[in-house]
């Protein structure tokens, strides 16, 4: 494939990734601030961001650490929150499975919700060679990943000096609402989402993090049951 073609597709990916900066930057700033306020030093906060690369799991782990939760509960809750990445990976195999190993390794490292959502939308709409698909994926990630790291560093350095008026915590719900909403395409998806929300809200009295685990399990079971029921009907 000509290099110019790959550059063109990469540029298209960059354009697709730019709007996500509006939520990625405050999201990263917020984690930097929260991590610092939780007692982590700058190296530990940046280690989270560079090694885990999963905002929701990072927030989950830090919140549980602040509550002095057992290590096994911190790991279980964080892994549960991040299990969607395994499903993302499985869904990308038909599109990127034949790419070179080093490219697949980078794809795995840079796999965040925004990059996945934008890339899969294109893959489902167009039949392109794997080289173009990889180029587009890297293009979407190009503006997101560096700014995620930079924003976290800035948040960690600033710490509690960030004015409350900035209300950075809006980034978390807005990010996931924007990503989850378009993915609710079937009755099973909607049922799982509703059940997870109801169970999570009704289990706030449980020890920190356990309500999330219960909600996730109930959502998975609901989605599977509804999917099975719909298949039997058809």
TrEMBL record:
GO biological process, any: L-valine transmembrane transport
Keyword Secreted: no
Subcellular location: Cell membrane
Membrane topology note: Multi-pass membrane protein
GO CC, one annotated term: plasma membrane
TM annotation in the entry: 20-40, 47-66, 72-96, 134-156, 162-180, 212-230
Signal sequence interval, chain numbering: none
Record's keyword terms, sorted: Cell membrane, Membrane, Transmembrane, Transmembrane helix, Transport
Principal cellular location given in the protein's record: membrane
InterPro entries: Brnchd-chn_aa_trnsp_permease (IPR011606)
Name listed for the protein in its UniProt record: Inner membrane protein YgaZ
